[in-house]
């Protein structure tokens, strides 16, 4: 999991550590602690899926596959345009 997060090609190298994830979860007291075991696992899995997709540096022919390059970035790489449009 998070195979290339500390690769030199990733601008977020060294940013996503196990300790940082644990510290961040302490800021959200209900995270992964509400509901039965399956509900808690689903919440954590959904968080990892969303954040890994949003931080991916992968490309179609990437070594180990495109999805092994999640947690490569920590900010937008190009102008995303408007997330919300008034109309």
Explain what the structure shows.
This protein is mostly helical. It has one domain (1-76): Orthogonal Bundle (Lysozyme), CATH 1.10.530. The chain has 2 helices and no strands. It has helices spanning 18-25, 37-54. The longest helix is centred in the middle third of the chain and has 18 residues, at 37-54. 9% of the residues are buried. The model has no long low-confidence stretch (mean pLDDT 87). Pfam families: Glyco_hydro_19 (PF00182). Keywords: Carbohydrate metabolism, Chitin degradation, Plant defense, Polysaccharide degradation.
Keywords for this entry:
2 helices; Lysozyme; 30% helix; 0% strand; mainly alpha; globular; 87 residues
- Helix and strand sequence: HH
Annotated CATH architecture: Orthogonal Bundle
Structural class: mainly alpha
Biggest sheet: strands, sense, closure?
none
Which fold name is given in CATH as the topology?
Lysozyme
Number of helices: 2
Approximate helicity band: 25-40%
Keywords: Carbohydrate metabolism, Chitin degradation, Plant defense, Polysaccharide degradation
Protein name: Basic endochitinase
Function: Defense against chitin-containing fungal pathogens.
Organism: Capsicum annuum
């Amino acid at each position: 999991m998070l195979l290339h997060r500390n690769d030199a090609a990733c601008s977020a190298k060294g940013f996503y550590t196990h300790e940082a994830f644990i510290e961040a979860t302490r800021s959200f007291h209900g995270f992964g602690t509400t509901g039965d075991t399956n509900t808690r696992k689903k919440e954590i899995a959904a968080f990892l899926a969303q954040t890994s997709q949003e931080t991916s540096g992968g490309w179609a022919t990437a070594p180990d596959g495109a999805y092994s390059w999640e947690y490569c970035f920590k900010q937008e790489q190009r102008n995303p345009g408007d997330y919300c449009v008034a109309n």
